[in-house]
């Protein structure tokens, strides 16, 4: 009678045991120092069931990462002892900037998470005529804090040591008043004649994505008048959370990481 080999799953278990988790620490990381993790990072460490003595990698967004070990893990907080600090660059050679029409909460979270993984340099949320989500100032502050945590968590997962800039959310009219003038400015549009590979990009590359339902006609007219170039991604209409990720992945494949 056949029975599964006793070693089945052992490599996976060993890899899990040796995995060193990454945690964001908003402060200086000098070798030899003992640092207190932020409340968010502490909750993460506890959720991962990390214990005193476990190795971790800390980063604060300055382009370095630090080997450290947890000193204390408990209800009063989580502290870690920094051992070494190393400059590690995992940024894309192509600077991409995403301008995203604010969309429903779960979709916006997905865009922020995956755009970070795909190496985006900055993200600007814009409230357009067709944006489903409209937040009062207090709720917007909470939502923007949540979005920043989504971006930080994505950096912890994907290995980035620089946090993409998350600009403040602005209405479409304010965005147009300060619309970028330099670099390549792209608007994804299913009916456009040009394809992405037809464009010779001049960094930084700005990618504008509308919310659910896309940009209103008057918004699209203003954007094109401002110098954004419409490009298409085949004959299919992509959802608001799919379009930016497809565009960023293609940009990286054509001119970035790949």
Quick one: CATH superfamily of the largest domain? Answer: SPOUT methyltransferase, trefoil knot domain
Helix content: 25-40%
Please compute the radius of gyration using only Cα atoms: 21 Å
CATH topology of the largest domain, anyone? Answer: Alpha/beta knot
Q: How large a portion of the residues is in β-strands, by DSSP E? A: 25-35%
* Cα shape: elongated
Number of strands: 13
Q: Low-confidence spans: pLDDT under 50, at least 5 residues?
A: 1-8, 12-17
Largest sheet: 8 strands, parallel
User: What is the CA–CA distance across the termini?
Assistant: 48 Å
Please sum up the structure shown.
With 258 residues, the protein is α/β, with parallel strands linked by helices. The longest helix has 22 residues, at 137-158. It has seven helices and 13 strands.
If you had to describe this structure to a student in words, what would you say it looks like?
The protein is α/β, with parallel strands linked by helices. The chain folds into two domains: 17-87, Hypothetical PUA domain-like, domain 1 (Ribosomal Protein L25, Chain P, Beta Barrel); 96-255, 3-Layer(aba) Sandwich (Alpha/beta knot), CATH 3.40.1280.10. It is built from seven helices and 13 strands. It has helices spanning 10-18, 39-47, 105-117, 137-158, 172-177, 217-225, 243-255, and strands at residues 21-24, 34-36, 55-59, 64-74, 77-87, 96-101, 122-127, 165-166, 170-171, 184-188, 194-195, 205-209, 229-232. Strands 6, 7, 8, 9, 10, 11, 12 and 13 form an eight-stranded parallel sheet that branches. A hairpin with a 4-residue loop joins β3 and β4 (64-74). α3 (105-117) packs parallel to α4. The longest helix has 22 residues, at 137-158. The relative contact order is 0.14.
């Amino acid at each position: 009678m056949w029975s599964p080999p006793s070693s089945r799953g052992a490599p996976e278990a060993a890899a899990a045991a040796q995995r060193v988790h990454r945690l964001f620490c908003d402060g200086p990381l000098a070798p030899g120092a003992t640092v207190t993790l932020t409340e968010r990072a502490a909750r993460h460490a506890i959720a991962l069931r990390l214990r005193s003595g476990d190795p971790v990698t800390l980063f604060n967004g300055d382009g370095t990462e630090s080997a450290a070990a947890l000193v204390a893990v408990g209800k009063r907080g989580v502290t870690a002892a920094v051992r070494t600090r190393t400059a590690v660059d995992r940024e894309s050679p192509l600077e991409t900037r995403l301008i995203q029409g604010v969309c429903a909460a779960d979709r916006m979270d997905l865009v922020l998470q995956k755009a970070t993984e795909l190496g985006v340099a900055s993200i600007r949320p814009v409230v357009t005529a067709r944006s489903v989500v409209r937040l009062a100032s207090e709720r917007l502050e909470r939502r923007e804090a949540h979005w920043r945590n989504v971006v930080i968590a994505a950096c912890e997962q994907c290995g980035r040591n620089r946090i993409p800039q998350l600009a403040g959310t602005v209405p479409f009219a304010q965005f147009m008043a300060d619309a970028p003038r330099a670099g390549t400015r792209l608007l994804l549009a299913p009916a456009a004649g040009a394809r992405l590979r037809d464009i010779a990009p001049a960094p930084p590359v700005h990618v504008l994505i509308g919310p659910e339902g896309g940009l209103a006609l008057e918004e699209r007219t203003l954007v094109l008048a401002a110098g954004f170039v419409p490009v298409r991604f085949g004959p299919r209409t992509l959802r608001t959370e799919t379009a930016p990720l497809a565009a960023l992945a293609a940009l990286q494949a054509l001119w970035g990481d790949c």
